[in-house]
Each structure stands twice: as C-alpha cells, then as structure tokens.
Amino acid sequence: MITHAIARLRGMDMRLARLWVLAGNDAAVRLYKRAGFISANYSQALPGRPGVIEELMELELG
Question: For residue 28, what are the domain limits?
Fold first, then answer.
C-alpha cells in the first residue's frame, strides 16, 4: 500500500512526502524506512495526548 501511495504521489509530480509516526512505534518506523523515508530530525507532542510524541519522516520523490 505504501509503494502504491508513493507511486501516486510521484505521478502527481510531488517532490516530497512527509508523515508523522508515534515515537516508539518501531514497526512503523522500520516499514517507512524500507520504503525510503528518513527522519526529518523533528518531533513534537501529539495534540490532545499529553506525553505522546510524534516524529516527522520524509521521502524525497524526485
């Protein structure tokens, strides 16, 4: 499903894909890294969920 979404974004001439992943969700991070995403070195508290942190990941599309 991720590869399909990435292909669609590329088909729309998008240059960058970004997504947020919950800190500690190692399975999701591994999945996104296999798809080519890297850490954007930015994190923030998840709005409305005290103590929960989300991290930004990015993928250059072209």
Answer: 2-60
